[in-house]
Every structure is written in C-alpha cells, then in structure tokens.
Amino acid sequence: MTNIFGKHRFVVITGNYGSGKTEISLNLAMECAKREKTTLVDLDIVNPYFRTGEKAEELKAAGIRVLMPTFALTTVDIPALPAEIQSVFEVPSDRVIFDVGGDDTGAAALGRYYPSFMKFRENTVSALVINCMRPLTGTAEDILDLARRIEGRGRLKTDLLINNTNLADQTTPEMIEHGERIVLECARELGISRVCTTGKEEILRRSSLHTPVIPVRRYMVPEWMEEQE
After folding, report:
1. Would you tell me which of 9, 12, 152, 184 could form a disulfide with 126, CB atoms 3.0–4.6 Å apart?
2. Which pLDDT does position 91 carry in this prediction?
C-alpha cells in the first residue's frame, strides 16, 4: 500500500461515511509501522462510529502514536481538536496519516491545518476514498460534487482517488469493476492522474481492472459480524 502513497510524510485520507477510509487508514498505518515511526490522527469530528480511535490499543501495541479529538469514543463526542494534533507538523515522524471526515463539515477540520500543510505541500498526498455502492457516492455527479466540497472546505487539493467500491461480504468483481469505471471518469473530470483500487484480496483476484490494486484487511468489523466470520 505504501507504494501508491510514495514517500510522502503526510497522508490525508478523506471519504464519505461508509467509504472505507478508516479501514484504509488503519491498513496503511499498520504497514508503515513495520519499518518507520508512524502517527495516526483521527480527524473525524462528524462520525462517532467506525473510527480509528476504536482500535487505539491495537495501534499503540504496533508502535503507532494515536491522536484523536477530545471526548472521542464517549457520550460527549464534540468536535474538539486538541492542541497536540498540531505537534505532528513540529515533532519528527516518518509518516503521519490523517483519517478525515469526508463531507464538507468534516473537511472543515482539515482546513484548520491548511497553513501547516502548505509548508509541507510537496511532502503531502491527499486521497479521496470512494465506495460507489453508497447512496451519496453512487454516481459520477455525486462524487464530483463531494470532491469539490471537500476541497472547498479542507482547502487541500485531492491528489489520488481510491476506488473502494464494496458491499461488505456481498461484494462481487462486477461491483468493483463498475466502481472503477465511475472513479476513472471522475479522475478525468478532476484532472487527477493517480487512481487505485482496494478491496479483499480474493475479490480483487477475480476482478478485471485497469488500475493498481491494493488488498486490504478488515479491521472495523462489528462484533455481531465477527461471530459470523
């Protein structure tokens, strides 16, 4: 997975609810931590569920520094960003991954750090994760609207589109291929040259794709689903 993000120190991952951005953030953090000092910033101030902070202990056990909004994972989940997050731009770290809430409200948190990102723009890559099986990102028009709203509020241009089209255990190769076609169309409209596809390895193997593929492991599996796997 690190190949698609290159050697950029800062990796920003955005995506609407249900896109799989948190899974991709976790996969990237776990992979990076095997060979470099890694920090994972949970910058999602919108969604109280399926967030990277839920795996904080597992991440810390892997040697990953975890930062998250104040009161995250409590009944008082308010959008309060601790001053410690700013430290990632000042304290040396080989890789810093930002898991950002994907709509324009969530991207506003990203915009708060715009001056710092601009200081390191050449060392920053911003990726938008897209799941074409979700209602708000099912068409090219919806995706383009989302991408432009995120850029408008987050003030950071998207460099990479990630086709993560899936329907959990109901995913088929045809779904992934359909998603790739839509995401490639969006990339052309946005002037983005970098596109990849992620998903379960066994499904990717059976899919006919034109973009680089990256297998991902599912970390954010609800307890009721774990019993069925």
Report:
1. 12
2. 84
